């Protein structure tokens, strides 16, 4: 049997991505490879969640964009992920405690570094600052047919959900945006407020089903048709066993996306899976073989370049 190379499968996936209607991810039985999603616009290539990151990611071959949204004190949804502004910018404090006029003055690329030709760490955006964009600016910066996976990353959820609703209403962006949150409160509130919202299932539901499959060999309540689920392809987890005189903790890297787990998720039909944290050709190939619809990567440029290289055949062991 002839197997298509990763590069040829990527070409087929790109054609399907271009055929996506309204900017939504629409996997097809003919899709030969998972679509490449740029995590926060490609955190390894450009300062994350900036307009420059989103546009660079598309130039580097990403077919969809993962964006992270929080809301300012005065109700403006902006693209930022960490809990504190000091993590990435030249500011400090929680974004939710600042008005947009002050957030706008910060440099979103302040902490972004790379190695120069001499191996020295440099900060290329300290002299060329990048603003934290609003959600409205981020959506306007990319073509309308590019799918957007929007991670709502703030608690309490109500102010953020209401601010996101306002922008998606104003820009008629509901068909091109699918919403995710690690907090079920955010997606539950969004579902109640806007039934047309396209949502991922809760992270708890995805994780619990994977744990049941991995530890118990059980397919627990497979998701309904039309469900979207996403979680890390590999994940370091702690297994905690509690007993009378204490507890035992085992740390393990969970390779929980087995063929049986994928079969469980897809057993009701028309369920779509996104693998987070796919950075190597080997993981991309594994996700493709398992039948994932999309993979999320920190560096579309590195992943594309690695996939374009001819894969070296593995040596065959011989008996001595």
Automatic annotation (TrEMBL):
This is Glycerophosphodiester phosphodiesterase. Gene3D superfamilies: Phosphatidylinositol (PI) phosphodiesterase (3.20.20.190). It comes from the Bacteria. Transmembrane segments: none annotated. InterPro entries: GP_PDE_dom (IPR030395), PLC-like_Pdiesterase_TIM-brl (IPR017946). Residues 1-32 form the signal peptide. PROSITE patterns: GP_PDE. Keywords: Hydrolase, Signal. Residues 34-307 form the GP-PDE domain. GO terms for molecular function: glycerophosphodiester phosphodiesterase activity.
């Amino acid at each position: 049997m002839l197997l298509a190379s990763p590069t040829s499968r990527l070409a087929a996936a790109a054609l399907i991505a271009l055929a996506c209607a309204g900017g939504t991810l629409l996997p097809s039985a003919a899709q030969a490879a998972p679509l490449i999603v740029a995590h926060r616009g490609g955190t390894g290539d450009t300062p994350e969640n900036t307009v420059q990151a989103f546009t660079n990611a598309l130039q580097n071959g990403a077919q969809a964009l993962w964006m992270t949204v929080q809301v300012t004190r005065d109700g403006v949804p902006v693209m930022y992920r960490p809990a504190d502004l000091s993590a990435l910018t030249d500011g400090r404090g929680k974004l939710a405690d600042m008005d947009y006029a002050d957030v706008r003055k910060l440099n979103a690329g302040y902490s972004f570094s790379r190695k120069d030709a001499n191996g020295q760490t440099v900060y290329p955006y300290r002299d060329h600052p990048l603003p934290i964009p609003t959600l409205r600016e981020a959506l306007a910066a990319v073509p309308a047919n590019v799918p957007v996976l929007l991670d709502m990353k703030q608690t309490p959820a109500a102010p953020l959900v209401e601010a996101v609703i306002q922008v998606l209403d104003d820009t008629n962006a509901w068909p091109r945006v699918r919403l995710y949150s690690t907090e079920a409160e955010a997606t539950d509130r969004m579902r109640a407020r806007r039934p047309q919202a396209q949502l991922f299932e809760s992270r708890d539901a995805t994780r619990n089903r994977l744990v049941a499959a991995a530890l118990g060999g059980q397919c627990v309540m497979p998701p309904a048709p039309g469900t979207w689920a996403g979680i890390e392809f590999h994940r370091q987890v702690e297994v905690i066993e509690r007993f009378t005189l204490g507890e035992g903790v085992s740390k393990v890297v969970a390779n929980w996306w087995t063929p049986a787990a994928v079969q469980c998720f897809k057993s009701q039909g028309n369920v779509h899976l996104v693998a987070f944290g796919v950075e190597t050709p080997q993981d991309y190939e594994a996700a493709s073989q398992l039948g994932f619809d999309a993979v999320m990567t920190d560096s579309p440029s590195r992943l594309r370049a690695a996939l374009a290289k001819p894969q070296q055949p593995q040596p065959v062991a011989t008996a001595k």
